[in-house]
User: What shape does this take?
Amino acid sequence: MKFAIIAGAVAAVAFASPAMAQEADTVGGKFVAGAIVGIDSVNAEFDGLSDAEEDILLGVTVGYDYETQSGLIFGIEGEYTDSSLGVTERDVFDAGDRVSINAGRDFYVGARAGVRTGPNGLLYVKAGYTDASIEAEYDDGTGEIADEVSFGGFRIGAGGEIDLSSNYAIRIEYRYSDYGNLEALGFDSGIALSRNQGIVTLLGKF
Assistant: This one.
């Protein structure tokens, strides 16, 4: 439901932007930086079963956008986000055991491409590489071992952006990240990890 609301808000950008026109020329290149807040939903799948947990996501982003005369936008961006979200699976290898996966910091670098939908609105898609820090804990009932690992995956997403002025904008975005099977604690856990995120970003443009 939360992601459906975000998707609806993104779609509204295309219709709302003509009524919020600004006179500033948007053609050319600009550096951007902003603060991120959103919802982080991590999904763990094992042996046909899945479990998802949600928590708040906070972070920052920097990047560079270039807009052509025809209203096409191309950009590069990097992000740092953090989440305290955790997922726990039981009876993974033996009856009564427990595997806990706690999400930590996440670095992202990628590119985006978009098109103007009005004088101050645009829709875009994005794709890139994400490197997540995950703390894994395994308890077999006789003792607990823990390991913190960093591993990469891919991210795709789509969103909308509205210019509030020539120097400020707001983005509403959905993105999906896939990290494959979690390899930690010295073995392939067999747990496939992915995450869905819905975010809002307040941007400054320079």
User: Anything to note?
Assistant: The first helix runs from residue 2 to 16.
